Amino acid sequence: MTTQTEEIQALLITEHELIALIALAGTEGAMKCQTLFRLDHAAGAPLEQAGVSTLLERGLMKIENDALLPVGPAATVAAVLADATSWLETALVTPCSEHVSFMFGTEQGALLLNLSKYGVHELHPLTGAEGMIATAVQMADYYLNQAPDGFPAAATARRHFNDGTSRAVHVKAEADGSLSIATGEGENLKSSALRREQLDSLVRAGLEQHSG
User: Fold this and answer.
1) Contact 137, 212 (CB under 8 A)
2) Neighbours of 97 (CB within 10 A)
3) Is residue 162 a part of any domain in this protein?
4) 98 - beta bridge partners?
């Protein structure tokens, strides 16, 4: 089965290009992506026009009959933004760095947006909504179980639902490598000890449970 995102490889994209593609898509799903990407404050004509200019310059957009049309991988990105019905964000903190990413899409295809502090982000294809959860689980396992950056470390994966609710899973690794997990939103969440072999299954279970 061909997914919506199979034709796209890793794509570098700026915030203003994302704003332009979101505006072009114009759907409720795309607007939710904009909010989750923390771009609402930046949306509007100046940055949108800048995004259109660089997309045209890069050959990722064209003008046809006085209409703007994304082409190539940008067309895939615009389609996934427009059709998005699933959203998931992850935040990872290690002794060496912080990693923030967003995943969005449908059962037919999804994309992973890895944020860069320099404003040029990376988009990677995923195999639909199920691939979003699998990727979040893999990220938590890599940074907290395999721990290439060492301890302490923490990971939060938050799944957003169509009804406006969300479900978060928080995993912490202490300086000695011991793990704990908590689910839900808000402060002072109750946490419980977590064995290393439980990490994948319990993070997945926490994300798959609908909180609404």
Assistant:
1) no
2) 9
3) yes
4) 93
- Residue 61 lies in domain: 11-208
What's the CA gap between 101 and 170, in Å, rounded? Answer: 15
Give which of 114, 93, 92, 117 is closest to 103, Cα–Cα. 114
44, 54, 69, 76, 137 from 66: Cα distances, Å: 20, 18, 10, 21, 44
Q: In the chain, what is the greatest distance between 2 CA atoms, to the nearest angstrom?
A: 63
Residue 204, token pair as written in the block: 């997945």
Instruction: Report in angstroms the alpha-carbon separations of 9 from 21, 73, 91, 183, 188.
Output: 17, 8, 23, 33, 41
**Residue 144 domain flag:** yes
For residue 5, being part of any structural domain is answered with: no
Residue 195 structure tokens = 């064995």
Q: Residue type at 169?
A: V
Q: For each successive 10 residues of the chain (212 residues), what is the average pLDDT?
A: 50 95 95 93 88 97 95 95 95 93 91 92 87 92 90 95 90 94 89 93 87 48
- Total number of domains in the chain: 1
Q: What's the predicted TM-score (pTM) here?
A: 0.88
Q: Is residue 3 part of a domain?
A: no
